[in-house]
Amino acid sequence: MSEPILQIRNLSTVFSTRAGDALAVDAVTLDLNAGETLCIVGESGCGKSITALSVAGLVPYPGKVVGGEVLLTGADLRKMTPAETAKVRGNRLSMIFQDPSSALNPVHTVGKQIAEVYRLHKGMDAKQAEAAAVELLGAVGIPDPQRRMKAYPHEMSGGMAQRIMIAMALACQPEVLIADEPTTALDVTIQAQILELMRQLQKDFGTAIILITHDLGVVAEMADHVAVMYAGQIVEYADVRTLFKSPKHPYTQALLRSVPSMGASQDMLEVIEGRVPQLTNLPEGCLFAPRCAVRRTADESRCTTITPDLLRVGPGHHCRCWLTAPSADESSREVELV
Amino acid sequence: MLGYAIKRLLSAIPVLFGILVVTFSLARLIPGDPCKAMLGDKVSEATCAEFARNFGLDQPIWVQFFYYLRDVAQGNFGNSIRFSRPVSQIIIERLPMTIELAFLALIVATICGIAIGIFAARRHNTAGDVGTMAIANVGIAMPVFWLGLMMAYVFGVALKGTPLWLPPSGRLTAGLVSVPFYDVWGWQMAKGTFGAQFAEFISNFYIFNALITFNWAVFNDAIRHMILPALTVATIPMAVIARMTRSSLLDVLGRDYVRTARAKGVPDNKVVQRHALGNAMLPVVTILGLQMGALLSGAVLTETVFGLAGVGRMLVEAIFARDYPIVQGFTVLIATIYVVVNLIVDLSYTYLDPRVRPQ
Ligand SMILES: Nc1ncnc2c1ncn2[C@@H]1O[C@H](COP(=O)(O)OP(=O)(O)OP(=O)(O)O)[C@@H](O)[C@H]1O
Ligand SMILES: [Mg+2]
Fold it and tell me: pTM for the whole thing?
């Protein structure tokens, strides 16, 4: 297995709101291996996007990253000056977002927006950057790229715009690409094309991808590793096979049962009862405990009193649950990922 | 683009036509006999019949309207009752000063307003932001005539004898004369022709006239006389523009495409400059067009306070003196300026925003 290219260590982000401080990202620790895809899944509002933005240093006001490290090949992005971070973003670490139609600047041509990346990071002049941009547009499957360069974002379909975003993100062949639900806003056939494009470019450039999604089908198709998030915390982390085959966390299990699976005839899909807790008013103990069906039958007092740690439950498999926690003598090997 | 400009220009015609209908009806709706209004209460029947024939008042109303259109097209707005002079001549004499005043005020308001707005937005929720916006709110609430009087007092009276002193009234210091450029250049023009009238109109822009004739003494003096009035007129629009710029920029800075720009590695200051300002200016441009109203009404009061002979003050005086030809002529004029300004705003919009640009 290759060295992790991106190491996220205890990353925490707080939103100070009138209702109190919300820990939207709670000591998230993750590794991303070069050339691999890590999927982050979880319900709406569990902190997937904020985790991604925290990694890139783009958390919106009133949010603030309050602790942790983001090591890109060993160098901590959080310790860099704004000028240094600007050199990394779009060059070694890129992002694409959910809604491509609002992610492009409406008053500039797409050609100009792509060329800007080359001018910023590759020191090209306007002419060179334009030529490079035309070539790149062709590479991401935009027909008639020369003409498309002069188009404005509002003249493009969502799928086309997302291709432009991908082109922009991959222009400098970054080591890491963070894609926050890149296909959620697109219709199904376009979704498949975009995912295929990402996979192709990943193969060509060796880019490692953090893919955020709440579509488990996408996870099955794209992921090498999966992290499941709940209320700002990673509750389970494993390689994709292990996670689908033997999920340990009751939340993951419920999540998997809530999707229709091909082949198996399921009369009814399960819904997870209750709602995601409010980040300003978190329950004591395990954050999932109030909704946890397993706990109700298990009779484990720690669930509602002490927050469980993310513990190793198998090779490269970690879970944050008292019910699956290894017995005391084993737990010395905890929290060490991979 | 040019085709669109022409189309917009043509679409202004119905608006202008509407304005003419309104001003035409205005004159007919004024209570009382126009003959008596013009010639006094004690005129004889015969004189009035003569009067009606002279002014076409015995014709059917649509014929009168046709005459009116013809006159306006020829720049003929009739004669002022008070001054017994053509309204067009009064416009030639007075409009340039008001345009100069409004234009200077517009420049000050736009540049300072946008700069202040950017300053505040970039310091969102800090003392700098809160402070500037508090001042802007005071600026909006300030009565123009009071502000004008205060300015005139502080800079024109209290600071007398210091280098900060500025003339509190008039267009030029007594003794200085603005010599029309055509006299400086020795042009010979037949009186009363359109060319001569146009040249006279241009020469009444004192600052511009001094500039093209290299008369720096008059240039400096005219500008110094305009500073206080222009600042007075500019205050409210400047505050409005500053608030608009701030809120628009804050809105834009939270947009997805600004986040994209940051994610691309665009440095912070360039993010504002390249990716936020262009978008943030769209609502500001709209406001600019609307502020023309504030600018013109501000000019009326300001001209009075600073003793400037512009159209604003003349219009107010004409209303009180029931000098209807002037009211009518000036209304057409101001409405036309309004239409033209909004046309420019519209066209600049298509320049700034590709989404409304015609293909
Ligand atoms: N602008 C904000 N102000 C206050 N709190 C915020 C803000 N943005 C996010 N949060 C908090 O952060 C939490 C996580 O938000 P995030 O956008 O990361 O969720 P998500 O997992 O990406 O959800 P989705 O699937 O809907 O995109 C939210 O539940 C909310 O409490
Ligand atoms: Mg999200």
Answer: 0.84
Any ligand 1 atom below 6 A from CB of A60: yes
- Is 70 exceeded by the pLDDT of residue A153? yes
Asked if A61 is an interface residue toward chain B (Cβ–Cβ < 8 A), one would say yes
Strand pairing of A225-230 and A233-239? antiparallel
Looking at this protein, which amino acid is placed at residue B8? Answer: R
* Euclidean distance between the first and the last CA atom of chain B, given in angstroms as a whole number: 8
* Alpha carbon distance A113, A133 (integer Å): 9
Is the pLDDT score of A333 beyond 60? no
Going by C-alpha positions, the residue among B100, B135, B103, B101 that lies closest to residue B116 is B135
- Name the residue among A91, A97, A165 with its Cβ closest to that of B265: A91
b/e map of A126-163 (b: 16 or more CB within 10 Å)? eeebbebbbebbebbbbeebeebbebbbeebebbbbbb
Out of A61, A104, A120, name the one closest to residue B265 (CB): A120
Ligand 1 site-directed mutation target among A18, A40, A48, A228, most atoms within 8 Å of CB: A48
Q: Which ligand 1 atom is at minimum distance from the Cα of A60?
A: 1
One-character DSSP codes across B79-126 = B-TTT-SBHHHHHHHHHHHHHHHHHHHHHHHHHHHHHHHHHHHHTTTS
pLDDT recorded at residue A265:
56
The amino acid present at B21, given as its one-letter code, is V
**What ipTM describes this predicted complex?**
0.89
Q: CB of B311 within 8 A of CB of B98?
A: yes
Give DSSP secondary structure letters for A291-316. Answer: G-HHHHHH--GGGGTSPPP-EEEETT
How close is the Cα of A49 to the center of ligand 2, in Å?
4
In this complex, do B256 and A103 lie within 8 Å of one another by their Cβ atoms?
A: yes
